[in-house]
Amino acid sequence: MSNERIEVIRDCEVIEVPGGRVVQLTKGTPVSITQSLGGSYTLLVHTMGGLFRLAGRDADAIGKDAPPEEAAPSPDATPKSAADLRDQVWAQLRTCFDPEIPVNIVDLGLIYELDVEPVPEGGNKVAIKMTLTAQGCGMGDSIAADARSKIERLPEIQAANVEVVWEPAWTPERISPEGKELLGMS
């Protein structure tokens, strides 16, 4: 990603990385895009000396196109088995990224548990336990909300709960071989 300096073209909200504090950027604020993954942008805000996450829906504030809303899969794409549905949930989680690390949360080894259960009214609920690379990271709620939102886009999912847990503690050994390759650790 280029670190070309650009200016914000309209006021927008961003989330401080890793603190998690919501901040208002005003039109004309100089920024550089440091990462664009999973539909969001990580910005270096020069006047604040730090990184901030911009949601994809606000991409126009930096002169980019917002990602298209994901259409629900056609009825023919509906999972035929519990295993197919779990695979779809895992695929959605692979579109979620820590704003500081260019590896998805699955390949970072942040997902500890994933359960899919049918609900009596129809559909399914998903329960996920995940962690972060550091307990002091304030982005946990934002990353969990991103994961929950993407999972709930699946037509057979009625609800998703994503809980951030701290045990066992995350270690770099949890990173998948693909993640290690992306990070230059292999």
Low-confidence stretches: none
Main sheet? 6 strands, antiparallel
Number of strands: 9
Order of helices and strands: EEEEEEHEEHEH
C-alpha end-to-end distance: 22 Å
Q: What share of the residues lie within helices?
A: 10-25%
- What topology, given as strand order, has the largest sheet? 1-4-5-6-2-3
CATH superfamily of the largest domain: Fe-S cluster assembly (FSCA)
Reported CATH architecture of the largest domain: 2-Layer Sandwich
What is the CATH class name of the largest domain?
A: Alpha Beta
Taken together, the total number of domains comes to: 2
Fraction in beta strands? 25-35%
Q: What is the rounded Rg?
A: 17 Å
- Number of alpha- plus pi-helical segments: 3
What best-fitting shape do the alpha-carbon axes yield?
globular
